Each structure stands twice: as C-alpha cells, then as structure tokens.
Amino acid sequence: MLTRNRDELLNRASELVARHMGLHFPRERYEDLERGLLAASPELGFKDIESCLESLVSRALPRRQVEILASYLTVGETYFFRDEGSFKVVEERILAELIKARRGKEQRLRIWSAACCTGEEPYSIAISLHKMIPDLQDWNITILATDINPVFLKKALDGIYGQWSFRGTPGAIKERYFTRKKDGRYEVLPQVKKLVTFAYLNLVEDIYPSLINNTNAMDVIFCRNVLMYFTPERACSVINNIRHSLVDGGWLLVSATETSPVYYHLYTAVSYPGITLYRKDGKRPASTEIPPYVQVNREWSSTSTAVDAEIQPAAEVDLTYILQREYEPAPPPTLEADSPPALPITASEEALALFQRGQYADAIDRLLALLPVKNASSADLSLLARAHANLGRLCDALEWCKKAIAADRLNAGLYYLQATIQQEQGEMEAASASLKQALYLDQDFVPAHFALGNLSMRRGRSKESIKHFENAAYLLKKYKQEEVLPDSEGMTAGRLSEIINCTVSVEKGV
Asked: How far apart are CA 314 and CA 317, in angstroms?
C-alpha cells in the first residue's frame, strides 16, 4: 500500500478518474480507490502502486489504461430481472403501452441499457419483449447495451452465467430462455441473444445522441446503479445528454437511490408503486429555471393520470449551482469599442443551434419556415432528416434524406445518413447498399466502414465485421488524433480508433 504522499497522490488520482470516467472517489472512499489501483498496477505494467500512480497523474491517460482502470474500479454487481417490481411496472405500464400504440403501424422499439455491466439487464429486457410480442419477427427491435468495461462486455457477449446471476429469477424463466451447460452454468438462447447489440461507450467522454453509435431516438433508457458513482457535475451532464437521446415521451429508468429530484428538473417524474420513472416532455424547454419545489410523490390512476400530487421540497443536496452552470445560457460577449459588429445569425445556423441543444422539433419548424423562401440546400435537408430521425419519425427522416441526396448526389455522407435511417427501420439490405454507395463515392469514408462493421456484427457475421473495422482503423491513421471526422457528429479520429480497437478485442475474445 502507499507509504508516502498518499493523500496527495490519491487526490490527484481521484480527479483523474472523475475526469475520464466520471467515477466519484471522495476522501472517505480513498481506501476503495487505493485497493482498485493496487490490483490494476500489474496489468498497467507497474511493480507497485506508487510508481503506477505517479505515472498516471503525470501525463495524458491513454484509452487502454482507462479501460484497465474501469475493469478494476467499476462494480459488476447485477443479476437477471434485478428489482423485479420495477421490471413488472416497465412491462405492464411502459412496454405494453408502447407495443399497443405501435402495433399495425411502425412496429419498432428502441431501448438502451446504459452501463449494462455483464449483460443481465439487457437480456432481461429481451426476454420480456420475447414474452410480450408473439409476432416478434415482424417488429424492428433495437436493444443497445453499452459499458465502459471491456471485460464486462466480453462476458455479456458470451451470454453464459452462473447460479448467482439468477438469484430471485423465476425458475420458469431459466428453463425457457437458457440452456444448461455441462459445467452447470446457463447460456442465453440464440433467439434472445440476437436481440441485443453490445458496444463500448463511455457515458462521460463519448458523444450521444449520435447516429454513429446508435444512441438516438430511444423509447426507453435504463441507466440504473451507475449515476450514484458519478460526481454531481458528471451526473447532471449524463442525465441531460440522455434526455436528448430520448424521443418525446420517452422514458428514463434509474435506481431508487438515484432519484434525487434536483437532477431531473427537465423531466416529468411519474410515480408508480415502488418506483419513480422520468419521462421526457417534448413541450418542456431545453433550458429552464430550477424550481424551488419539485413533485416527488404522485399517485396514479389506472389511466396514468396524475391525481393529488404532493409537493415537497427538493433534496437536501444543493446542486443548484451545477444545474445553473449547466443549463443557463452564457451571457453575450462584451464587444470592445473598435470591434466589428457581429454578423447576424442565419436561419440555417439558428436551426443547427437548436438541433445541437436537442430541440429537434424547434429545429424542424425553423427549417420548414425557411424552405418556402429559398432553395433548400442539401445541408438544410440533411439536418431535417437528422432531426426527424432523432424524434423517431423514420419515414419522414428517410424522405428528407432522399431529397438531400437528390440535391447533392455525389455526397457520400448523405448515403451514410440514409443507411443509418434504413438500419433503424430494420432494412438491413437497403442499409448495406447505401453504405456501399457511400464507399463507391468515397472509398476513404471512415464512418461508412465503421457502420458496415457494426451492421455485419449485428447480423452475426463476425469475420466480415472485423474486416470492416480493420479497414476503418487503417484509414484513421491518416488523421490526427484530435481531428474531427467528416459526418461523424463530432467524433475524433483518436476516439473512433479507441472504440474500434475495443470492439475488435471484445469480438475476438482477446
């Protein structure tokens, strides 16, 4: 254990871990941090914790070291249908209503298990949908499961679990949806496993919502038992980004210990017996004043209409300064006397700014108002397509994308956008054709190679998937690490390289 400069080094290590992973290790948890670092030191290439710490805090932290630290500092405590009462509410009140509303129309569901750990949660979601939708083959189901820990992701992809993962799980579930292995463990059935897509994602550092990592237009997001480990600032940032990843009316599920109402002032709190969920209200502005009182207890009728709402003060923890800094608009810059006047913002720029703030419907309205008075550019049409896609309006998104292509037929990025929309619609062959068209126009178009890798992986074509990822990785060497890739919504070359390396390692089982 550390013998010199302990508190100073651990303080700097705590700041480093918070910055890269969002994990919060205050002074009272220094022993936990020290224990994790001690275990990680040999894998990081150090003989003792002191040399490990001194190296970590003295230079930029490579992605591989972030992944190693994550494997020792994150908690892998989970099991199937954890908190059975919550799952019952989700099945009966959320999923059942979504299925009923979309049956016979656009039969699709998009669910994201953020911080999925070793996979028990997303597989539980898949089992629930398998039970609830008898004609599952006629639906386009997306269950995205992401985590920062590649060791967890590898186990999740294998889909093999011991008895401890089934504590509290009804025996009938285990018998129907798993096969018993010779060693006594249980493997998820293929028809359940294929419903889930696992991917590496850092909730603190990565960009979402984004078409490139499939984190947009989600109906339901599970983010349970992770926010409690974040610093308050990181938790606020994650919750805000998650809100942008939801469609209007979409649902966020957190654990019972993560329901401080101050964090969720941009959501509508909906309480059922034993669980509080948070719903994105599309009419609520993206930036709003923090209310001094919040609704934290509501009784709900059989039609989910609020009655007798009980108004209570916000939680004791005062995060107002964080939320105000996060959401209040910045003051206008002060111009010096001899400074030239600022150029007026165009309608297109205004729409883009609205889009970037997650105000997709407002961006659409602004662009539609613009169209009659000018010939629409492919950029405006593309933004209309992206905004509709992020709202889950895929048919409209595809139509606007086709109009953008008609206006600029040699733009590889537009075919890539078309492919992402087609993939969300479940049109895998059409998506593959669009991506190949993008590469015909620009064989060095990295996002298309990456998307083909993800598409092949989703279709169970591992060798083909790895080939596409390796092509993308090779092309990324031409870019500087900090260089933003074209049509990537802000993804840098270095970050995508790291994601590809992790994805390939998990896929190969390395």
From this structure: 8
Q: Say if pTM beats, i.e. exceeds, 0.85.
A: no
> Minimal CA–CA distance to 382: which of 363, 402, 362?
402
What span, in angstroms and rounded, lies between the C-alpha atoms of 177 and 191?
Answer: 9
The burial class, CB within 10 Å (0-12 / 13-18 / 19+), for 391 is: buried
- Residue 386 in 3-state DSSP? helix
In DSSP notation, 170-208 reads: -HHHHHHHEEE-TTS-EEE-HHHHTTEEEEE--TTTS--
Helix, coil or strand: residue 220:
strand
Whole-number Å distance between alpha carbons of 143 and 198: 9
**Nearest by Cα to 267 from 248, 419, 471:** 248
The vertex-444 CA angle with 438 and 449, nearest 5°, equals: 65
- For residue 113, what is the enclosing H or E element? strand 108-114
440: amino acid identity, one letter: Y
Q: What is the DSSP letter of 90?
A: I
Return the pLDDT at 317.
Answer: 38
Helices marked H in 199-346 = 232-245, 320-327
Q: Is the dihedral of CA 79, 85, 89, 91 positive or negative?
A: positive
In contact, 111 and 121? CB cutoff 8 Å = no
Q: How high is the mean pLDDT in each 10-residue block of the chain (510 residues)?
A: 66 82 81 85 82 76 76 79 88 95 92 94 96 94 92 92 89 92 94 93 88 92 88 87 94 86 85 89 51 31 32 36 40 50 74 91 92 81 94 93 95 96 91 96 95 88 92 94 88 89 76
Report long-range pairs for 433-442 (Cβ below 8 Å, ≥24 apart).
438/412, 438/413, 439/412, 441/410, 441/411, 441/412, 441/415, 442/412
Q: Residues 6 or more apart from 361 whose CB is under 8 A from it? A: 248, 282, 387, 391
Q: Strands 306-313 and 178-180: what pairing?
A: unpaired
DSSP 275-288: EEEEEE-TTS-SS-
Q: Residues near 13 by Cβ (< 8 Å), separated by ≥ 6?
A: 25, 33, 37, 53, 56, 57
User: How many C-beta neighbours within 10 Å does residue 43 have?
Assistant: 13
Where b means 16+ CB within 10 Å and e means fewer, 105-138 reads eebbbbbbbbbbbbbbbbbbbbbbbbeebeeeee
**In Å, how far are 343, 366, 368 from 373, measured between CA atoms?**
21, 12, 10
> Helices marked H in 196-258 — which ranges?
232-245
Q: Are strands 160-161 and 140-147 parallel, antiparallel or unpaired?
A: unpaired
- Cα 14 to Cα 52, 70, 144, 214: the distances in Å are 14, 13, 30, 31
- 50 close to 2: Cβ distance less than 8 angstroms: yes
Question: Rounded to an integer, what distance in angstroms lies between the CA atom of residue 282 and that of residue 416?
Answer: 28
DSSP letter at 161? Answer: E
Contact in structure between 82 and 120 (CB atoms under 8 Å)? yes
